[in-house]
Design brief:
Structural class: mainly beta
Strand order of the largest sheet: 10-11-12-13
Helix content: under 10%
Distance between the termini: 66 Å
Number of helices: 1
Radius of gyration: 27 Å
Length: about 260
């Protein structure tokens, strides 16, 4: 069992030194086991780390989770520990951050191993586009990559930012916030969809309408069905038998009055 850099004689040397080869990390690094513990060696069969870990996970995005005595931490691609081995659990890095758990609370570390905020959340979700949803006592908010709460943790549900806006739910009603945490609409809608091409579908009294990015309602709430805007138009349906489209000013025309060619 060899890989470029690890020739047969070195594999034999591993055996003589009491190492069991687990897998090759790359052409110059391998994970081995000795006396029930794991660590790293190079092509000269020299220990790059102490053989001290109870578990080493696969590298993902340049980092690997390691475990000692049911505590977890991270090493980088140079086999350097970037965190203390102290967490109750740790997830792989995604988009530059990793979720960690300590004393049954969750938080994030960055690629330097720094906790970007106190580990205080009941649950957290991975960062997407620079923001992450966090939860405390069944309330949700959003933090940025510095750990700052850009949306306060007071909503019953939130979506991550899409095209600069997040949907939030409070008391069974929906509304929108921008990336500064400002409510651009009242939290009053029965349902809402993400912004697409500058407009979002919102539902009120069981009928659909549209808002623009300022939160202004550009249509009345008269549509039983509505599709997202494509270009300057969105297809809508007033009744089952009356279908048409609206423009960005909210003007409706039935299909039988439109030259679709």
């Amino acid at each position: 069992m060899t890989k470029s850099g690890f020739v047969n004689e070195n594999v034999e040397k591993m055996c003589k030194k009491g190492y069991t080869l687990i897998w090759f990390v790359n052409e110059n690094l391998a994970i081995v086991r000795k006396k029930g513990k794991y660590g790293f060696i190079n092509t000269m069969v020299e220990e790059v780390t102490p053989i001290k870990y109870d578990e080493i996970c696969f590298f993902e995005n340049g980092f690997a989770v390691v475990e000692i005595n049911n505590k977890y931490g991270f090493i980088n691609s140079n086999c350097k520990e970037i965190t203390p081995i102290k967490y109750n659990f740790a997830y792989n890095f995604k988009n530059g951050f990793a979720i960690v758990m300590l004393d049954r609370k969750f938080g994030f570390i960055n690629t330097k191993g720094k906790e970007i905020s106190p580990i205080t959340y009941d649950y957290v979700y991975d960062f997407e586009n620079g923001f992450a949803i966090v939860n405390i006592k069944d309330k949700f908010g959003i933090i940025d990559t510095n750990g700052k709460e850009v949306i306060p943790i007071k909503y019953d549900d939130v979506s991550n930012f899409v095209n600069g806006f997040a949907k939030v739910k409070l008391n069974k009603k929906w509304g929108f916030l921008d990336t500064n945490g400002r409510e651009i609409t009242a939290i009053k809608y029965d349902d809402a969809s993400d912004f697409v091409n500058g407009f979002a579908k919102v539902k009120l009294h069981n009928k659909w309408g549209f808002i623009d990015k300022s939160g202004k309602e550009i249509t009345d709430f008269i549509y039983v069905e509505a599709n997202d805007f494509k270009g300057n138009y969105a297809e809508v349906e007033i009744k089952i038998t009356v279908k048409g489209r609206i423009d960005t000013l909210g003007n409706f025309k039935p299909f039988n009055q439109i030259n679709l060619k």
